[in-house]
Amino acid sequence: MDSDTQQDAFFKLHRDLPREGPGEPADVVWATQQAVIGARARIADVGCGPGADIAALLAQAPQGEVTALDKTAQFVRAARAIYADDPRVTVLKADMAAIHNSYDLIWCAGAVYFLGVERALRGWRKSLTPQGCIAFSELCWFGENRPARAQALWADHTAMTDVAGVTRQIDAAGFDVIGQRRLSDAAWEAYLTPLDARIAALRPGADAALTQVLDEAAEEAACWRAHRDAFGYLLSVVRPR
Hints:
By secondary structure, the protein is of the alpha/beta class.
């Protein structure tokens, strides 16, 4: 199966989903409280997907600005359509490795793994205001229990570590942890419940490429529901030393 066919199948599944990963507005509220941002804060939403977190970020900085960026054109179009009439929001098709301007908060929900924690933090440091923070969620193990099914699911995620490992990477990048917490079950279901419905709707008549994508997504959802105590997302708020 060629890469274009796989990509087409992936976007057929993910088209019009509200989120591209676990998350909820309460995550943004908690993170911005840790970072102590003001009403006029400048925020970068890095790897914004279809813009699921933009409204929550604006709610915490109602007189501020959100610059949202993603390298996937489909997601950029979706976010732009929602916020076309809001002058506080700029949505860019851009690489997360090259952030410009200066921000009070850099928010990255579930996308740091594209760069790796250390590389992302080191690269984004120059784009923080003097008291600026970075908030990011990263998939990790919780505790020593690592079921074989979960290990198989994340076998290609070779950088996946535990909470202590994420914290060591933060320290190695020259940052201090302000706060950390696990994403809740509600955050996962905010992503998985619409995904379940989309999978069910696409099953009838799905070709081989789409069936493979649907099966992989269904297994991710089922595996998390079976082993949610073993793995999940860790949300960290950090500030450079």
